[in-house]
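does this look right to u?? 5-bromo-uridine-5'-monophosphate version
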Amino acid sequence: MKKEYFILRLHDIGAVKFGEFTLKSGHKSPFYFDLRDMISYPELLNKTAYLIADEIKNLDFDYISGVPYTALPVATLVADILDKPLIYIRKEEKAYGTKNAVIGKFEERSKVLIIDDLITTGDSLLETAEKFKTEGLEITDFFVLIDRSNNIKKYLAQQGYNLHALINLDKIIEVLKENNRITNDQKTRIKNFTGKISYDNKTGKNLENHLTKLLKDKIEKKKSNLILSLDVDNQKDLFEILNKTAKHIVMLKTHIDILKDFNPEFIVKLKEYAIKYDFMIFEDRKFADIGNTVKKQYTGGIYKIKTWAHFITVHATPGEGILQGLFNGVTGRSSFLLAKMSSKGNLMNETYTRNVFNMGEKYHEVVSGYICHANGKEELRKLKNKIPKGQLMLMPGVKLKAGTDATGQQYTTVEDAMQGGADCIIVGRGIIEAENSEAAAKEYKERAWKIYKG
Ligand code: 5BU
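got this back:
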């Protein structure tokens, strides 16, 4: 069977559909793939198995696996064709007993090739691979029937996995168009839709606001993803460290109320530094009250934050009114919402974080992105996958070595933060407590940039 025929048959049985579909995220997509019903067409299932077998026969592996439920039947046929044993990871959590997660007989340190039907974010294959690894097996290759992602192959390669795909979305469109199964208009709509999405979300729009763009441009220009959190209590120390580090940072993060000698001249000087060294200013105020109050806190008092900070941090807990209060009638300013804090035991659970992303998406004109922390790159990548396209992920709790401090701050490494998809890392004590803050800033900057550009 040729790939073309495979695509047409999938279309015949309704496994690839074009129209308007509402995704789990609530977004509308012009196409939808669901390969579950393939098992009801034995001739198609069988031919597909031969196609897969042909593509993988020269790879190096001892066992074949399929991710339940959809990919398991076809993986079984492939195992038979290539005369390789089949094993798989049970889908349901074990209710009792000591049985292992792997079903089937195997020897440790053997190589497993994992087959799945579709890949979008890579989460399901990565999770499966992790489970096999805990049981002592090795994974280097994944095979999928349809790769509907946008460049997930590169991300998986960074994690040490080769992704092989029978077909991708472009191929499906090409074949269906050639065979008059979709119209030119549909093709354009699909192209427009996929052109705007990244592999991690399907918003269909670009949510980058003007301030976000300025920050992104500066990241490129300064070749730096480093945000320095200069949490010292006096101006002298602050400018001393800033003198040494400013050329390496893309943004300075302040906690203005920590300074014991704050005066309006401080702001004048800070702005001069920002221009001279080309960095942006970010006050980590963590607003968390009703709209009417935060407006006063933002514009008034002694700090008059609105007049000098490009960005502020905002808690979404009070609801949308907080953003309306802060930004109504305000231009040239933006914010980051706190989506998942770095402190141990914080109460921001998955549902909360998802709601924060929804709120930030709605208010993208004044929300540039999110503060997200996770204790490893896989966990962080899952957060990144849920962030609306065009918005940024900033990661605090970063040091050269992972660990914790005495009051529950959790640190992840620069490498994990960047491989997990952070756009910027926020570093405080890792730099300000270093013996040589300039060398430290340079090191954080370079280590992050290498992965960002990798
Ligand atoms: P550190 O010295 O690198 O631990 O400083 C981290 C900074 O980032 C510090 O100013 C915190 O207030 C800030 N931060 C954080 O650590 N974790 C969070 O979740 C958020 C902010 Br939000």
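The CA atoms of residues 344 and 408 lie 5 Å apart. idk if thats expected tbh
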